[in-house]
Specification:
Length: 514
């Protein structure tokens, strides 16, 4: 049985991702710098042209169309040019930053009305109030007669009264405009320096599922979307929207298009949470986060718990670690904990080697026959880790499934290269490689010698660190021939002598003029 507290928190997570307010551009396309209205177009014909690889030009008000594949906008030439550049720049910026394609052509626009709370004037008893008056506050003659007739015992609403109420609400409602089908497009440069629309490769058209959910929740209206809203039949969607619009006063299907930047990543997350809530809460880790009880997470095994405890205490990992990139003791402890199957949070300020640690962690886990899913909000973070792995010859272990890297042909090509390689990770190194043992032993001896404390009382590691601290002070050549063989006691005696000499020299400084 799923914990009610966990399910309640999951619902709060979902609500935080679902934006059904008027500020969402997918529900109300407002005129702005990153939108271009395209009225009076054939959405079905545009969809067919884009699917066939046809490039479409966007033509300003009063400019000649030039060819049959031109979309006319009421914007002037200068304003159109500014908006096209702004849209292209914004879409490219979001693709580079988050790996999300946000440039879409909205085909078909549904004008729908969202009444305010004050518009809900029917109190449920069948009476008619001031909302049914005309704009000059005089009561409608038909309404007055019908209201008198409704004073009888028969409280069933009269059809004419219902129609008048709907018309009054429609007049007071706010009209919003939302695209119905979103077609992925790109703006590419023409030879003459202009920009034209082409279909974006590797992406499928989709219904505006945000609008679909809004209509379902607020109005109880179901807009058919086909196969989960992906690759919809444009003509069928427009016909269904028009059938809905004719039944609601103030609603209208506009045979228009809207080019703009539309982002619905959070809605996709909401959709996954909504469809797979039980699967998610079946995960021990997700259930622990959802409960939010403030207790430590129970690790899946004793070895994992011991690895986390050792890492928190600053103890060196006892297990063998494969880390081809530089790592300090805390990073090695994190890698060892991940290899043991532990779940934990690793925190570090910028520039402390988190990407390098992740790369080492992936290498260590993959070498032991595990798979790793690396997820991040920023595409740059994914690419940094992939580049680090490629630099040490492990690029083929990475299957990139983000942004434009998720194109079907590229994914198949990546899988083909991996299947053709000779080496496959199974259960980690066998330990039978004599050369590997020899190299590991030499490296271990080097580290041991670096930290070994000799007669001098300090390790070579400590001495090198002290020399780094003293690199800005004056340097003097050692006169003692036995300096390299000094023990700690002899060094301290000579250090005291040098200090006494410096103190005695102070009264006679500068010596040259004494």
């Amino acid at each position: 049985m799923i914990d009610p507290a966990a399910r309640a928190r999951l619902e709060r997570w979902k609500l935080s991702l679902l934006d059904l307010t008027a500020g969402n551009r997918l529900l109300d396309v407002k005129d702005g710098k990153t939108t271009i209205p395209l009225p009076d177009v054939d959405a079905v014909q545009i969809a067919a042209a884009l699917a066939d690889g046809v490039a479409l030009s966007v033509v300003a008000r009063g400019a000649p169309a030039g060819d049959a594949y031109a979309l006319r906008t009421p914007l002037g030439k200068d304003e159109l040019g500014k908006r096209l550049v702004a849209i292209r720049r914004a879409a490219r910026g979001q693709l580079a930053d988050a790996g999300v394609h946000t440039l879409w052509l909205g085909l078909g626009v549904l004008a729908w009305c969202e009444a305010s709370e004050a518009d809900d004037d029917d109190d449920g008893d069948g009476t008619v109030d001031a909302a049914l008056t005309t704009e000059d506050t005089a009561p409608h003659p038909e309404v007055g007669a019908i209201a008198a007739a409704m004073m009888t015992d028969d409280t069933a609403p009269h059809p004419i009264v219902d129609a008048a109420a709907e018309e009054a609400r429609a007049r007071a409602a706010t009209v919003r405009r939302a695209p119905l089908v979103l077609w992925p497009v790109e703006l590419e440069r023409e030879l003459g320096g202009g920009l034209r629309l082409v279909e974006a490769p590797g992406l499928e058209p989709r219904c505006n599922l945000t609008l679909v959910e809004k209509l379902r929740r607020t109005f109880g209206v179901v807009l058919p979307t086909g196969d989960d809203g992906h690759d919809p039949d444009v003509a069928a969607v427009l016909a269904a929207a028009e059938a809905i619009a004719v039944t609601r006063p103030g609603w209208k299907l506009e045979r228009a298009a809207q080019l703009g930047v539309f982002a619905f990543g959070k809605f996709t997350l909401w959709n996954d949470l909504d469809a797979r809530a039980d699967e998610l809460l079946a995960s021990p880790l997700v259930a622990h986060l959802a409960r939010g009880a403030g207790v430590a997470f129970g690790q899946p095994s004793g070895a994992a718990a011991q690895a986390v405890t050792s890492a928190s205490a600053g103890q060196a990992p006892s297990a063998e670690i494969l880390a081809p990139l530089d790592a300090d003791a805390s990073q090695l402890a994190a890698i060892a904990a991940a290899g043991a199957g532990a779940s934990f949070v690793l925190q570090g300020p910028p520039g402390t080697g988190k990407s390098q640690t992740i790369a080492n962690l992936i290498v260590h886990c993959v070498t032991h026959g595990k798979t790793v899913l690396f997820v991040t909000e920023k595409r740059a973070a994914l690419e940094v880790v992939q580049q680090r792995l490629a630099a040490v010859g492990l690029g083929e272990f990475c299957l990139e499934l983000h942004s434009h890297k998720a194109v079907r042909g590229q994914v198949v090509a990546q899988l083909g290269r991996v299947l053709e390689r000779a080496f496959r990770p199974v259960s980690g190194p066998s330990g039978n490689d004599d050369r590997l043992v020899e190299l590991r032993t030499a490296l271990d001896e080097h580290v041991a010698a670096l930290h070994r404390v000799g007669p001098f009382g300090r390790s070579l590691h400590d001495v090198l660190g002290r020399l780094v601290e003293l690199r800005s002070v004056p340097r003097a050549a050692l006169a003692e021939r036995d300096a390299t063989g000094l023990d700690r006691q002899a060094f301290e005696r000579r250090k005291l002598a040098v200090a006494a000499l410096a103190e005695a020299a102070l009264p006679v400084e500068p010596v040259a003029t004494h």
